[in-house]
Amino acid sequence: MNAAVASAPVRPQSPRLSPRVARFLKGALGVGLLLAAWQISVPLVGMSPYFYPAPSDVVVAFGDLIRKGVLPVYIADSMGRYALGVGTGVALGIVAGIAVGLNRKLSLALSPLFKFLFALVEVAWIPIFVVWFGYGIKTIVLALVYVVFFPVLYNTLLAMRTAPQVLANAVRSLGGSGFDVLRYVILPAALPGMITGLRVAAGFAFRGLVFAEIIAAKTGIGYLIFEGTQTQQTSRTIVGMIVMGLLWLAIDQFYLRPFERATVQRWGLTVDAAQRT
Amino acid sequence: MNAGIRPSRVEAIWLGLLPFAAILALWTALPHVTSYPAYKLPPVSAVLQTAKESVLDGSLLTNIGASLARLAIGFVIGMALAVPLGLAIALNRHVADMFRPVLSFLQAIAGIAWVPLTIIWFGIGNGSVIFVIANTIFFATLYNTVLGVETIPLALHRAVRSHGGRGLALITQLVLPGAFMQILLGMRTSVAYGWRALVASEMIAGSNGLGYMTMDAVQWQRVDVIVLGMIVIGLLWMAMDRMLFVPLERRTIMRWGFLQR
């Protein structure tokens, strides 16, 4: 037994790579193929870089944006807005969700309104935010708070309803206070809802950020994407799109997934698959 | 019909209407209590008047129709391209491994970020907006299809194989039904992204439609049109979600026991 376990990593076909490394290499090959296809297609398409820039143009634009210090500032601005908006939205959504969810009548009364406001996408609020607050950070952050607030609130509310009454009764009969019920029964039940809400919201908010920056900002990744085409520097637009994609993958990989692992999966609660992106 | 409604449901409806009534009352009373410029928030009567006018002259319906038609066309194009391609990619494990990072990256930037590029490629108007929606639906569906095929339990795969299933039978009996669930589950989310992309791209690159109507009103300082646009956008999405996706989920996914609640 022991010998078999010990020898497991050293398989007979020892030159084979571990599955992780193999998958990474294959993924890298996929990225490489895409880039190669893009580069090869440029002379075939035969359009000016304004219409169809080559990867090499994009690399040059990237170097240029880094050297001038534009890109780091834009990334910092975008991420600052995102963190501020999402953080505020999540905090408000959870607090409001719990406050409303504790009262059944209130929860019944407000659910349809929340549903409507959830359906009223943040994108649709941007014009009136522009009228109210002008172009700038207020409009952007408010749109982000909005887009995060409702999914978190709504999913928290839904999840709180699943808190088993039996457990609440058990805590009560053991002499627990109302706060104990909240702490040990309701909050654990609501947690998957909060995480689901956060996951849905984080994705919407990221696209929302880019859109809001296209409309209402003078810095940031969204602005870079928009400004590139306005000034006939399409390769800058592509740099912006690539940075945007990488940022999202980084947020997903380093913040959302570990967070989910540390909370939901660890406690054996599952997130409703339908709500996931 | 009415006999079927339980008292708690009636209660829920009444309670649910209260906040809307309160907001409406507050909104109506606000101009009498405080003074703020009318270009910031229109009185209720102005929005109703605008709603009436735009319904009567047909412009509201034209805009709704234009938006929904684009969503439908983009959806059909995106799905029609993504499902076969996704299946083709997912059938081979090595190919799937190769494309997964690229796909999750492209999904991350799908949608609104393409608008500036599409304006260059297709100009302002239908082409740009439809491209952006099709692009959003395409990448979300492609990703979901690949994921759907990959999450088919290996045991099922072996079961089909050991009964002699191969080639086309393997696809029709195992891969399609297996991936179908994930595609359906993903559809609601991908259309939700598509809807945002639609409204957003109409605001930047549209020449009509609800997004265009709402954003265009900013420069004319017509807050009544903006508020009307917002209400219509909210109601339309609720109606679509209710009439399309909720029944769809109930009929297919819940019926077959895929979704555990």
Notable features of this structure?
heterodimer, A: 277 residues, 2 domains, B: mainly alpha, MetI-like fold, disordered N terminus
Task: Write structural notes for this entry.
The complex is a heterodimer of chains A (277) and B (261). Residues 1-11 and 270-277 of chain A have low confidence and may be disordered. Chain A has helices at residues 2-7, 19-45, 55-67, 70-101, 104-119, 122-133, 137-160, 165-173, 178-216, 221-230, 234-265. Chain A is built from eleven helices and no strands. Chain A has 277 residues and is mostly helical. The longest helix of chain A is centred in the last third of the chain and has 39 residues, at 178-216. Chain A has two domains: 17-46; 55-275, MetI-like (MetI-like fold, Orthogonal Bundle). Chain B has a single domain, classed as MetI-like fold (Orthogonal Bundle). Chain B has helices at residues 7-33, 44-56, 59-91, 93-109, 115-122, 126-150, 154-162, 168-205, 210-219, 223-254. Chain B is elongated and about 75 Å long. Residues 1-5 of chain B have low confidence and may be disordered. Chains A and B meet through helix 2, helix 5, helix 6, helix 9 and helix 10 of A and helix 1, helix 4, helix 5, helix 8 and helix 9 of B.
How does the SSE layout of this entry go?
The complex is a heterodimer of chains A (277) and B (261).
Chain A: H1 2-7, H2 19-45, H3 55-67, H4 70-101, H5 104-119, H6 122-133, H7 137-160, H8 165-173, H9 178-216, H10 221-230, H11 234-265
Chain B: H1 7-33, H2 44-56, H3 59-91, H4 93-109, H5 115-122, H6 126-150, H7 154-162, H8 168-205, H9 210-219, H10 223-254
Helix pairs in contact in B: 2-10, 3-6, 3-8, 4-6, 5-6, 6-8, 8-9, 8-10, 9-10
